[in-house]
Known about the structure:
The protein is of the alpha/beta class. It has two domains: 1-67, no CATH class; 86-185, Aldolase class I (TIM Barrel), CATH 3.20.20.70. Helix content is 45%, strand content 15%.
Amino acid sequence: MIMILDCTLREGRQARQCNFDIDQSTVLAQAISELGVNMIEAGHPLISNEEAERVKAIVSAASVPVLAHARARREDIDAVLAVNAPWVGLFASVNQISLETKFKGKTRADVLEMFADAIAYAKANGLKVRATIEDAARTTMSDLLDMTRTAELAGADRVCFADSVGALSPSVLSQIKHSLRAYPP
């Protein structure tokens, strides 16, 4: 079964000179809902009060479920709960670049534990969880499988493979997809 998640109100908003305000976001959420998509991806409510209000307006206007973004941290999840989004897109990465730049001072094990805790916390608070392996293109297969296992054991409803930097060719992505689908071995 093919399901469609529209990311206009998140990714589209990041395009150069594109900054939907609350009223525009509401109109777009209603129109996108009417197109027959299965879900709308909104922004990250912890970023600012304005973004939280915008995401809350999207949730109210949409006739389909809305997914709001959050880092794998409880305060981010609390912000998603505050805007009443039924889904949270939690993201984390354990590749070497992320550990050195984003998660300074944290080990791979620390980030995996943080990811599991965030997923379990979100689930305990009634959210559906899309666990996103961020920057997956630069993540080893072993680490991809460990993050997938961690997400599954913590109760994630879906796991998302995000080629955040657009580094993969279709053939390499296909190989990785087949390996991940074959999990568990």
